[in-house]
Design goal:
Elements lengths: L7 H7 L3 E3 L6 E3 L20 H14 L3 H20 L3 H10 L5 E3 L19 H10 L4 E5 L5 E5 L3 H11 L6 E6 L5 E5 L7 E5 L2 E4 L4 E4 L3 E2 L6 E2 L1 E4 L15
Helix pairs in contact: 2-3, 4-5
């Protein structure tokens, strides 16, 4: 379910939320978190991932009362999900982001501090440089400068949730074009760039990241300091903030 599943209803009902149809690659409105991201007329072009197929089989087994089979499928799904989290293909994801027109730069492995001297100012979409960075440090996390292709509303628990609800209820949240679950159980809401800079503490537990800022991108991982976690896409970005079709690799 993920760390913010209990918050999704408030986002889905009161905020315009968009993603990319996995059938045609065009923008689509998200109305159901658990439904496949595909238009009704594009179902024939939709190809579920292995994990999605296992989950579908698990649900069918539960509904049919085949609980031993369901237990085995659940274990298989959990093992596959764990493997994806513990062995992220960071270099491939960085190249995928660059193909969308998003500049990327490397962060220290297991951390969100920049690995290069100039940090987000070193960000690029050049595939050769990106390959070189991740060839040198395969475990490097991925940084994305904000204020270029998108801005990000950064919600940190626990105080950020109540502040986010206030923003939603007051109509202060712009259309959201992608959602990321953060390693600490928070949320990054991707929105169209405003042209402005960073704004810290716009609400308790909520920051706005624009020009001059950056965020950690999936499938980066956090480790050390007695805790660990990962960044993952809850809702993939929509074509409104990508210059090219969204790839499954990220």
């Amino acid at each position: 379910m993920g760390p913010v599943s209990h918050k999704f209803d408030a986002i889905g009902k009161h905020v315009d939320l968009y993603t990319t149809c996995r059938g045609c690659g065009q923008i689509m409105t998200v109305t159901d978190e658990f439904a496949p991201a595909v238009h009704g007329l594009c179902v024939d072009r939709y190809h579920p991932t292995l994990l999605e197929r296992i989950v579908d089989e698990f649900l069918a087994a539960v509904e049919a009362g085949r609980f031993a089979e369901a237990d085995a499928l659940e274990a298989r799904a959990n093992a596959l999900a764990d493997a994806q989290r513990t062995n992220p293909r960071l270099g491939e994801a960085a190249l995928a982001y660059a193909s969308w027109g998003w500049p990327v730069f490397p962060l220290r492995p297991g951390d969100k501090a920049p690995l290069t001297r100039h940090g987000f100012k070193d960000a690029t979409t050049d595939p050769a440089r990106i390959r070189r960075w991740w060839a040198e440090t395969p475990a490097a996390n991925i940084g994305l400068p904000t204020g270029v292709a998108f801005d990000v509303i950064d919600i940190d628990p626990p105080r950020g949730w109540s502040a986010w609800r206030e923003m939603v209820d007051s109509g202060a949240v712009p259309a959201v074009h992608g959602l990321v679950c953060t390693a600490r159980g928070g949320l990054h809401a991707y929105v169209a760039p405003s042209g402005g800079g960073n704004l810290a503490g716009i609400k308790p537990g909520v920051d706005y990241r624009g020009r001059g800022g950056y965020v950690v991108a999936p499938p980066s991982v956090r480790c050390g300091s007695g805790s660990s976690g990962s960044w993952s896409w809850r809702i993939k970005p929509s074509p409104a903030i990508t210059s090219k079709p969204v790839a499954e690799a990220a």
